[in-house]
Specification:
The protein is of the alpha+beta class and about 130 residues long. It folds into 2 domains: about 90 residues, Ribonuclease Z/Hydroxyacylglutathione hydrolase-like (Metallo-beta-lactamase, Chain A); about 35 residues, no CATH class. The protein is about 35% helix and about 20% strand. The strands form 2 sheets. A 4-stranded antiparallel beta sheet has the order 3-4-5-6, with no helix packed on it. The longest helix has 20 residues. The chain is globular, with a radius of gyration of 16 Å. The chain starts with 7 loop residues before the first helix and ends with a helix.
């Protein structure tokens, strides 16, 4: 399981899946595994974790994932994954929008509002202005 982002409402089922599939490896970055025990009780976490860094690649057979850190694109442990064969970016929260389940409304206004309220707010709260 690749853990791109640990915000509890997005990552709620990590513990359930980890317990249901005890041989499953958990892929994340150093911050992911520093935060994970604060939210979830994962059996045998140390033997199950696969820590990736900026630019690392993992082959899944036909598919290869490459990892890029995206700290503060909502939370400090966020990373995105690029699947090289199909050229797909798994963007965590990077391109979200409010009202994601409403497919009838235009995408751009709510995506812009989401970006300014989520990503900008995190940036401002982590930046000191003298």
């Amino acid at each position: 399981m690749v853990i791109s982002h640990l915000e509890p409402d997005h990552a709620y089922n990590i513990e359930l899946l980890a317990k249901k599939y005890p041989d499953m490896k958990l892929i994340g970055n150093e911050k992911t595994f520093a935060f994970l025990p604060q939210f979830f009780d994962i059996p045998n976490l140390d033997s199950r974790k696969v820590v990736v860094k900026e630019g690392d690649e993992i082959s899944l057979g036909k598919h290869t994932l490459q990892f890029f850190m995206a700290p503060m694109v909502h939370w400090p442990e966020v990373m995105v994954e690029y699947e090289k064969t199909e050229k797909i970016l798994f963007s965590a929260d990077g391109f979200g929008k409010f009202g994601a389940l409403d497919t009838e409304e235009p995408w751009d206004c709510e995506a812009r509002r989401y970006y300014f309220n989520i990503v900008r707010e995190i940036w401002y709260s982590s930046t000191s202005f003298a």
